[in-house]
Amino acid sequence: MSTALDERVTDEVEALEAILMDDVVIKRVNDVPNIIETVVHPSTGDDVDQQFVCITLEVKLTPDYPDCSPEVTLRNPRGLDDQLLTTINSQIKQKLLDCLGQPVVFELIELIRENLTESNLPSGQCVICLYGFVDGDVFIKTQCYHHFHSHCLANHLIAGKKYYQEELEKLPNWQQMQAPPYQQTCPVCRCPVSCDVDVLKNAPPPVDSVTAPPFCLTAELKALQLKMAALLAQQVAKGGVVGVGDTGPPPLTITSPSDQDNEATNGSSSVAQEGAKAEAIGNGRPNGSGSNDNSSPGSPHSRPVYRGPYRGFNRRGKPGRRGRGGPR
Ligand SMILES: [Zn+2]
Ligand SMILES: [Zn+2]
């Protein structure tokens, strides 16, 4: 490894910084460029609003670069499906071979940009309604490059704000004062977003949701419902464990001293507890959304163990709920 920096590398890095400016990050080790990182967008002139996809390119320079290939990694793909990623990756491999002995970063950026420009439409589904994006759909790209039908995102944000408000009102006054203000977040990555809900909600519903055949409860679906309901009942009875014949401890932990006390004084009551819970389930208590996010949707049974975003918080920790330590 020579300490004198290869001129080809110095020139390339200088050019990258001059052309891409703030859009490229050069990480150096002892003043020697080591990692080059840039987010690649499709070519849309200066119209950033029309860029629906992007990907982060990371090039780690090897000591003998450019006579040896650098290590190239693609990260944070947005709006790109696996097939396109595979295509881009294999094109990159070929390009690295073709360009051995000469700087390759600009070539890589160009190669990726061409692919993105050709596929500058979100692929995959709207994660809210699970329908795809078709001609005529009105959709939005968030700041984090996730895509949703405008109609769906509006409903999601409205529901999110309502939920926040409901949870806030349950808190004592002094906690309400200290609670962080409501912040819209992306349903995929939870990055903060700022969307005009009033504009979004004027968008028509997804085209596919309108043209889809009416829902029909087939025998197959009914069987699946029964299977899922049984799994859910087992999950609830075991305190949140999904699976058949689980023997391990429940994944929810005890969070309050009183709960521990109950546990200690009722050390052998787990069977009784399960019986009590099973009974509660059998009573067909009102259903909320799923417990622990693992439940089957639409199951007619079960009171959720917990339905908020604060994972790790255990409602069973509150004494007196759900018959913990109930009569034997
Ligand atoms: Zn949607
Ligand atoms: Zn996002």
From TrEMBL:
Keywords: Metal-binding, Zinc, Zinc-finger. Residues 253-272 have a biased composition (Polar residues). SMART domains: RING (SM00184), RWD (SM00591). InterPro entries: RNF25, RWD_dom, UBQ-conjugating_enzyme/RWD, Znf_RING, Znf_RING/FYVE/PHD. Residues 11-119 form the RWD domain. Residues 313-328 have a biased composition (Basic residues). Residues 243-328 are annotated as: Disordered. Residues 282-300 have a biased composition (Low complexity). It holds the Pfam family RWD. Residues 126-190 form the RING-type domain. This is RWD domain-containing protein. It comes from Chilo suppressalis.
